[in-house]
């Protein structure tokens, strides 16, 4: 089963849940889709990782062919092309690599060349297959890295897709690939607000999903009440414990300890029960 | 007006806790605060500062998205072949993946009365609001689910703030996690970035990435360590890293359970006189203001 782990709010414990869920399975792939700030590799350090640069195609203008018509400048929705001093200027990091300018140019003056935006590292940590994408600082768009990772890992039947916070197109890519989604939240006003925003997004895609309440303080929190009213399954509750916070801060896997392993096993079992077998 | 932006790379390190406290402390000063929430994907500041709110301006966010007119689309698949965002599938547009580049419209071979079967349209993706609150002028946006923060939305939130801020001398802007497009847009034009770090390997790794991003844009930065006493060893490592990279750490804030209580009562933690974290946030506020004024 492919599970996308999301949250809305940052820092609720997506990576914590994701790496541990990948670790308790015999043959799972962990895919870090939070390419802007990837952290899964700190918990699942890879042996002899293979490194693959991710390039996108961006335009360059052959000045001898360009007649200065500026059709490309007018077309570019991202203001990545300008015209000054009698020539077209390309602002590399604003380009969304759509390829439109090259298709459009009446003089065929635009060619494309590879431009590095980040990388993908692939390897193993013990029995877990780890795929970790990373966007270079200063680059705007990590979507191409996520697309490539998802395409490469598609043959793996069991996957944990660790998504970024928020509800941007990065998160949507993870949701589309997943059989079900786990929304990690914390019992604070902020956690609940951002969870509701994320639930609206998930409903648009009709994906089965359940909630994990992390840093749970007491037994009567309003996230549970909300889930009961909305008929949303709470897959697991992880208590707010200093020991867990310290393990997590130091990049240790909680699931190596039997008492915490049980929490993740129950979470995985509950997640499976939400997906009808014919959909897998 | 000097603009202070609060960022962290990693989520959940305490950006909004610190931003809301700063806003509350500015209100106690001589000039009114003005503030903005640039975490437009999942904004939270409005949960704290809606008291006494009167709306000053409301406008609609528009983003360009591809729309297919099924009445004459022939499903030839040419747009799908050329779309590099993966937003076209079997003659249907996924508006959450579409970036509005216009390539589909460019390549569409089906033309009826000068209209292509697939065209870009301005889609309503949410609302911008500027309001007058008990704490000052507040600019934010509420996007529709899945609309996604773009540079354009962030720029609009900041411009809205600038056009209403009047006499305010300091603007506090709450940022979002990450280092990509929305963050780069939030950094553009601010005077100082305050980075909130916590003593965890994840937060430290993200600090490195956000600092590189901020430095590339040549904006001065300072930092603080939140929940510093959770791991004195890692806090020490952060201190060393920041020394090496000439990033001043203005304050170490201790872990304080009152912070969670403050959030759950929708109040800034500096409202609690007996909170140990609040004392340190007050000191952080003074030092940050000094930095900002020296710029």
Give the second-level CATH assignment, the architecture of the largest domain in chain B: 3-Layer(aba) Sandwich
Number of strands of chain A: 11
CATH superfamily of the largest domain in chain A: P-loop containing nucleotide triphosphate hydrolases
CATH superfamily of the largest domain in chain B: P-loop containing nucleotide triphosphate hydrolases
Largest sheet of chain A: 9 strands, mixed
Oligomer state equals: heterodimer
Shape descriptor of chain B: elongated
Shape-level CATH architecture of the largest domain in chain A: 3-Layer(aba) Sandwich
Q: Helix count of chain B?
A: 9
Number of domains of chain A: 2
Mean pLDDT of chain B: 93
Output the structural class of chain A: alpha/beta
As residue ranges, the low-confidence spans of chain B are none
Could you tell me how far the N terminus lies from the C terminus of chain A, measured between alpha carbons in angstroms? 7 Å
Strands in their spatial order, largest beta sheet of chain B: 3-8-9-2-10-1-11-12-13
Kindly state the percentage of residues in helix of chain B.
25-40%
Largest interface: A-B, 58 and 60 residues
Number of strands of chain B: 13
What do these coordinates show?
The complex is a heterodimer of chains A (280) and B (295). With 280 residues, chain A is α/β, with parallel strands linked by helices. Chain A is 34% helix and 29% strand. In chain A, the strands form two sheets. Chain A has a nine-stranded mixed beta sheet, with helices on both faces. A two-stranded antiparallel sheet of chain A has the order 4-5. The longest helix of chain A has 17 residues, at 189-205. Chain A is elongated, with a radius of gyration of 22 Å. The termini of chain A are close together. With 295 residues, chain B is an alpha/beta fold. Chain B has two domains: 2-51 and 134-294, 3-Layer(aba) Sandwich (Rossmann fold); 62-124, Alpha-Beta Plaits (2-Layer Sandwich), CATH 3.30.70. Chain B has nine helices and 13 strands. Chain B has helices at 15-28, 78-82, 103-107, 151-164, 181-187, 201-216, 232-244, 258-264, 276-294, and strands at residues 2-7, 33-37, 54-68, 88-89, 92-93, 111-112, 115-116, 118-133, 136-143, 170-174, 192-197, 221-225, 249-252. In chain B, the strands form three sheets. In chain B, strands 3-8-9-2-10-1-11-12-13 form a nine-stranded mixed beta sheet, with helices on both faces. In chain B, strand 12, helix 7 (232-244) and strand 13 form a beta-alpha-beta unit. In chain B, helix 1 crosses helix 9 (276-294) and helix 4 (151-164) runs parallel beside helix 5 (181-187). Chains A and B meet through helix 4, helix 5, helix 6, helix 7 and helix 9 of A and helix 3, helix 5, helix 6 and helix 8 of B.
